[in-house]
Structures are given as C-alpha cells and as structure tokens.
Predict the structure.
Amino acid sequence: MHDSKPENYPKDSILMFKPETLPVETLKYDNLILNFYADWNHQSHAFATEFAQAEAEVLAMGITNIKFGKVDASSVEVSRKLDISEHPNVNFYQKGKMTEYSGTLTKRNIVNYVLKETGHLIKDLTCSEIDAKVKQNDFNLVHFGPKSGDSWEMFHLGAGETD
C-alpha cells in the first residue's frame, strides 16, 4: 500500500493499493471493497466520486468493519494480471476471499451492498421510522416479531438475498 492518490480523486480516506501487493494486502482486512480504475477512463473518473460518497455515508453510519480502497489498473498488463476486463470494476474481499460486485455503480447501490455484506442491513425501527421509510420507498422487507424462530430465519434469509 502507498499514500499517493491520483489528483482526479476526491479527498477521502480511501486506501490506495499497489497491484503487486494486492493478494497479501487483502488478507489484512475483514471486509474490503476495492475500486479498480483506469486513469484514462472517463467512467472511472465519474465513479470515483460515487465511491468516495459511498465511503463517507458508510463511515457516517458508524460502520467501521469495512475499508474502502482503490487500485490503479490503468495498464493492460495490470488489468490482465488482475483479471479486470472493464473499468471501473469493483470487488469485495472478506479476509482475502474475493467476490466480484455485479450491481450498478452508484453510491446507493454500493452502500446497500456494503451494508448487506458486513451484516448491517437489518435494523430495528420504530413505527414512525417505518412510516418515514415507506414514504421514502427506502426498504424492501419488514419483520414484526421476535428475533428468533422460523419467521425470523426466513426474514433474515430474505434480507440477505435482497439488494
């Protein structure tokens, strides 16, 4: 890992990783989401802001068991070595095990994906909070009842499969 960041990226706390040390570095984090970008690619530039805003939102929620990082995959050689076929590309790592993110590259979808993968997707809400979320169309499932038993297990399973 190194400290320099491309000038086109917003100021943030996103970690910068070197491609050659990536396999070792990903093992150091319980949860790590990486943006593989190409400096020459305009979509990478546009997504950099979305990614930084997603990180800021996750940090503002007090979620600390995830790190956001980026890797310069501008060269064909690096992209080929890392099996990156398009830019930007996002991968999620849990203690070195990689899962390719296949969702839309937006702040909202990245935040929801991170919440799901780090176990923060399910929240306790009051009735007024549920009402507000309904008005905002901001959730997919609601469970009324104890956090145990068959209905809870089915809800938990469903919530884990929902993006």
User: Anything to note?
Assistant: The radius of gyration is 18 Å. Residues 1-6 have pLDDT under 50 and may be disordered. The first strand starts at residue 15 and ends at 17. Helices lie at 22-26, 42-60, 76-81, 107-117, 127-136, 149-160.
